[in-house]
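Structure, all two chains, one model.
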Amino acid sequence: MSINTVKFVRNRQTDEMNEKNKMTKAMTMGYEEKLRTYEKGGWKMSENIEKKVFDIEPNPHSNDDDVEEFLNKGINEVIKQYPKVKKILEEYDIGCTICSIGTCLLKDIVKIHNLSPEREQESMASITKLFYPNKEIKISQITRKAQSPREIKYSPPIKKLVEEHVLIKRWVALIPFVVDNLDFDSEENKQVILDGVDFIRFYADQYHHAKEEKILFNYFDENLDILKVMLEDHEKARMHVRVILDAMKRGDSDEVIKHLDSYREILTEHIKKEDEILYPLIDEKLSITQIGKLFSKFKDVDQQFGDAPKKYEKFIKKLENKFKVKEEVTK
Amino acid sequence: MKVLEGCPGSKMLDFRDQDEKEESVGKIKSQLRQWPIQMHLINPTAPYYQGADVVLTSDCVAYALGGFHRDYLKGKAIGIACPKLDHGQDVYVEKVKSWIDDAKINTLTVMIMQVPCCMGLVSLAKTALQKSERKIPIKSVVVGLNGEILQERWLST
């Protein structure tokens, strides 16, 4: 078995390749097996092509490769053409398939989700198989610098935002219990909703989201798709809060429940997107000077808010005790 | 690389067999923006430390790491020390603390070699941070004997 290193995997029908270049001729010469390796931007892929082999070095600069074409397409476009890609990505907890913009490239969204090398390899094999159902595609081992899969090392200011997410996630985990116990005849129960809304408006929105919108996002181009998606989520969450408060005034419990649930769904996905995609991306882009400035600006915000965040932590703890929910489940 | 003898910090290693690749030509500009640089000699409140990103590096790093000036020193102020051989390192702790509290430095990057005795410099920076009123991000960078970056990580603040 000989190995030729090429820029990316080529996987063509023999007749098509004959027309393309010399490599195609070599492929038709009838050898037993050929392994080709692709390496680009961290990906390493190889392909077993039965009964074919190359005699000559493939052209590493070819542009006519379908796999690369798909890897470089926006996720929505790929799903439109191959709907099953959506299901495969979801199986690997890659939630980008519901993104309203969907212009992030397929190769980037798989890479950024920090799957273990084995799962990344497996997911790419499944996706590539959709493109070429009649060929046996093997993705070779993916190498990473990181030692522990799914372990993301955040810079100190970004880590602070992730820690704030934990308290928001604890509230989100409590929403089903709050909803189940919702009784508009009880002032105490009504107050729980009002306190929860207060937590959302003050802690999640004014304190946490404001750090993102007024400070963090300013380091980047406001037209970035990923930022637009995050801002859209913030706006949706605010809209649900407004509707909940209106419904509270009218005593419309169904509407309160409906919008609390919608809020829970949005925030769950939103936090996951930020923790696993946006924040690692931001950490990669920021210079050490910017990280220092960001840390300092976040400290200023923390000082302005004083002990208020602790008050909200007590509120969440109290609810967890009331509904006997363990704090650890949401971490 | 031939391993001849010695403990991790001082054992003799011979890198001469390694492939020599000339990667750049012409005069390389120094990125050093200050003097002095040795931790006993520096004044931690000197103007070039004010609000700066500072690199605190063990002496050997700049010799091992080929791209030290371009990749780590550029745009930063510096202090150098040997955590194994230098005396009076209590003074170093106080000077790092003064960087943080008085000069209000923006970040600190602590660069050490992979040998165990170099870890003392990271401990020194952590101690200074704990004693400081201000908090800043501190990153540690571990350089291999062959000049490769083995690890970059943020220390908890």
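The helical segments of chain B are 61-64, 68-73, 89-101, 119-131.
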